[in-house]
Design a protein that fits this description.
With 200 residues, the chain is mainly β. It contains two helices and 15 strands. It has a domain of 135 residues: Jelly Rolls (Sandwich), CATH 2.60.120.10. The longest helix has 6 residues.
């Protein structure tokens, strides 16, 4: 599948990184090289990401599948020492990804940013530790793949209700949300005792 995507024996690939309104959250785009067979893409290259300033070491890959439109997953995070940074991409369908800053002392504490991530755009979002994370599917049969910097630890799980009235997140939902009973029972934002501290 690599044939036809190289020039002068080297793969030509570009990594584009854009800071969002909360600059620690980053939107990433990588090249796709296509021909009549399909395409090839180098979705993660450790050294290129490091050179671009994303020095997180990822330990685990996860994948989710959501059949229904407006499936909500979130808002989740893990406490230290199992805090997770995430690198999220969509291999089928489309999502609205949400990140909420919960670093105590941060100038953007309690604020959120969002980005549309899709297989068509072939983009990714980098979510640092210290942020609640969630997403909603905008197309049926959506597949999401993401890298995390720490393994899952049940005792370290923390979360906040997706539609908390204090956060006022615009999820872009025009119908009924589908979510797990676990996510539906998450506490309110004012109950969260964040273990994260802003370190400029």
């Amino acid at each position: 599948m690599h044939g036809g995507f190289f020039q002068n024996g080297k793969l030509r690939s570009v990594l584009t990184i854009q800071e969002l309104r909360i600059p620690e959250v980053k939107l990433i785009t990588v090249d796709r090289f296509g021909d009549d067979r399909g395409f090839f893409s180098e979705t993660y290259h450790r050294q290129r990401f490091f050179d671009a300033g994303i020095t997180t070491e990822f330990l685990q890959d996860n994948q989710s599948f959501s059949e229904a439109v407006f499936t909500v997953r979130g808002l989740h995070m893990q406490a230290p020492p199992f805090a997770q940074a995430k690198l999220v991409r969509v291999t089928r369908g489309r999502i609205r990804d949400i990140c909420v800053d919960v670093r105590c002392g941060s100038p953007s504490f309690g604020q959120w940013v969002s980005a549309e991530i899709s297989a068509r755009q072939w983009n990714q979002i980098y979510v640092p530790a210290g942020f609640l994370h969630g997403f909603v599917t905008l197309e049926p049969d959506t597949e999401v793949q993401y890298k995390v910097s720490a393994h899952y630890d049940r005792a370290s799980e923390l979360g906040v209700l997706w539609n908390d009235p204090v956060l006022k997140i615009d999820w872009g939902i025009s119908g009924a949300a589908a979510l797990s009973s676990k996510d539906a029972a998450l506490p309110a934002f004012h109950e969260l005792q964040s273990p994260f501290v802003y370190n400029p």
